[in-house]
Amino acid sequence: MNKTYIVRLTGDERQALVQLTKCGKAAAYKIKHAHILLQVDANGPNWSDAPVATALHCHGNTVRNVRQRFVEQGLAAALGRKKQATPSRQCLLEGAKEARLMALRCGPPPPGHATWT
User: What are phi and psi of 82, to 5 degrees?
Assistant: First the structure.
């Protein structure tokens, strides 16, 4: 079953998004996400996903994902990027090994050397 995520912005949220898009001092993806939210607002233009994606030169999945994050997690999550479920790279050192390395690095330099390099 397909879920429909209906975006309903409050007056304060709409004003904050308009201000974000007008000032142009934010990351490009935040401005694009703000434009998406303004266009799909049920209390505003209420565009469907396909025309918004065409107008803003992005994929339809982007519009759907921004809608979903807004409904499920709120405005801040919708404006930001999706967090990775798993990191791109595994940590090289963890736990005791990392603590030992930090203690060694914060201590005096090795014999025969004036400073750490």
Answer: -70, 135
| Contact predicate 31/25, CB 8 Å | no
What the block records as the tokens of 109 is: 């330099």
* Number of neighbours of residue 20 by Cβ within 10 angstroms: 19
Query: How many Cβ atoms are within 10 Å of 97's Cβ, its own excluded?
Result: 11
40 or 85: which leads in pLDDT: 40
pLDDT tens readout for residues 55-103: 999 999 999 999 999 999 999 999 999 888 888 888 888 899 999 998 9
Token output for 7: 């975006």
CA distance 72 to 102: 40
Cα radius of gyration rounded to whole Å, the chain:
23
Tell me how long the chain is. 117
